[in-house]
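Tip: read the tokens left to right.
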């Protein structure tokens, strides 16, 4: 059982758009693309929803959360209404995914790629342990724990 993990949700197409924004230094301040304001800088983000993941009783559940706003940091254009539940039987495949375009190590996330029989999006779900600043180091460990737990439960 794993509960209340802060998770990022993304997709391959979102990561492709994210890469274009970063590589071309596209302005995101007034864009519809998900981004965060850090003091006075506006930065694109490699996920489109952030929330809680729970794995228990043969089910994987996700519920988006509202991001806390503050003077230092504010998120824009995240999907705060996204929620889904998957029975383990609805998960067809669990893999890892790392976007082939290498930007820098800070954004180099080794995602969990879930192919499902349930149509939540038009493409596979990518999920990763969330984090920012000093907690970025916990992303790898947390994502690995989730990946191995899903693989174990799926059998």
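Filled-in amino acids:
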């Amino acid at each position: 059982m794993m509960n209340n993990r802060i998770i990022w949700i993304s997709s391959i197409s979102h990561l492709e758009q994210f890469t274009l924004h970063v590589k071309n230094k596209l302005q995101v301040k007034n864009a519809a693309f998900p981004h965060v304001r850090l003091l006075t800088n506006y930065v694109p983000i490699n996920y489109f929803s952030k929330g809680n993941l729970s794995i228990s009783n043969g089910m994987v559940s996700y519920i988006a959360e509202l991001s806390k706003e503050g003077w230092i940091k504010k998120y824009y254009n995240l999907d705060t209404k996204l929620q889904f539940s998957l029975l383990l039987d609805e998960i067809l495949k669990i893999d890892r995914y790392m976007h082939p375009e290498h930007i820098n190590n800070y954004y180099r996330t080794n995602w969990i790629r879930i192919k499902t029989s349930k149509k939540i999006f038009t493409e596979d779900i990518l999920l990763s342990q969330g984090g920012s600043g000093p907690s970025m180091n916990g992303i790898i460990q947390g994502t690995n724990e989730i990946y191995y737990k899903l693989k174990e439960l799926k059998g």
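Residues 2-154 form a domain with the PH-domain like fold (CATH 2.30.29.30). The mean pLDDT is 88.
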